[in-house]
Specification:
OB fold (Dihydrolipoamide Acetyltransferase, E2P), two-stranded antiparallel sheet
């Protein structure tokens, strides 16, 4: 899960595994696999960094026995 900010300053938490597309129009739009769109203040690059950080935490927490 990653924390993002809606345009109205509301903080939300998004399941990073559901993100399908992130685009800038100039606002950042995140399209989920559920077909829902979310407008956020973070840039496309910031969203990508948050997803990478989340995935690193998830995969670094695994042991070989859990794979």
């Amino acid at each position: 899960m990653i924390k993002l900010t809606r345009l109205n300053e509301e903080e939300i938490v998004v399941n990073a595994n559901l993100i399908e597309i992130v685009k800038s129009t100039p606002d950042t739009i995140i399209k989920l696999t559920t077909n829902k769109n979310i407008l956020v203040k973070e840039s496309v690059d910031e969203v990508i960094e948050k997803v990478i950080e989340y995935k690193r935490k998830v995969f670094n927490g695994l042991t070989l026995d859990e794979e």
